[in-house]
Amino acid sequence: MTSPPTPPKTAESPEPPPYAGAVAQGLWDAGADLIGYVPSASVAPVVAALVAADGGSGGASPRVFPLSREEEAMGVLGALPLTGRFGAVVMQDNGFGNALTALTTFNAAYHLPLLIVANTRGGLGEYNSMIHVLCQHVPGLLDRLGIRVFELDRRSGPGDWRAVVAEAGAHARMTFRPVVVLTHFWSTDGKGA
User: Which helix or strand (DSSP H or E) is residue 37 part of?
Assistant: First the structure.
């Protein structure tokens, strides 16, 4: 599937931060038909890049839309393979606390490919001391549940981020399973993405 055209830059659509733009382009490269997200400041630059590339504004476009909770995202986007399409979710990793039941009893159990890109919390630069309680365990928890996880951090450039996100989407389709890409943006306000 080809990527949507990049819209011209205007005062309303500034250049996305390089890592956020790379994640957004990787999601389109992965062939996502629909992309849902759970709103947060830390994923806002990725969402803005997705929406702009799809010709939308105000946080929504024809193929990008907000959802209220992570388990809702697993159900709505995870059901797309039943219609021959492929979905992706953008969220924070602390949202796995809400999503695990849906992810394991629906997506994984019924072999439904789904690409999940989750910004990590609790790492370098984290200002919220409570967030560490869950987030530091997310990679191990997902691994224990048999959910494939790939991690990206600033040791790799934006081009690598784009490629890994796209390849994770291909892996989800090939294995008929949900796949998670944990993105360590190292700035929880979304400004450093």
Answer: strand 34-37
Beta bridge partners of 87: 34
Q: What is the pLDDT of residues 72-111, one digit of tens each?
A: 999 999 999 999 999 999 999 999 999 999 999 999 999 9
**Distance (Å, whole) CA 123 – CA 175:** 30
Residue with token string 């995202």: 73
- What strands, in cross-sheet order, belong to the sheet with 87-92? 64-66, 34-37, 87-92, 114-119, 178-183, 148-152
Residue 76 burial (CB < 10 Å; 0-12/13-18/19+)?
middle
Q: Which two tokens stand for residue 184?
A: 């360590």
Name the pTM for this structure.
Answer: 0.88
Q: How many C-beta neighbours within 10 Å does residue 97 have? A: 14
Q: What angle do CA 129, 132, 133 make, to 5 degrees?
A: 110
13-23, pLDDT tens digit by residue? 556 678 999 99
Give the type of residue at 146: G
Using CA atoms, how far apart are residues 102 and 109, in angstroms rounded to an integer? 10
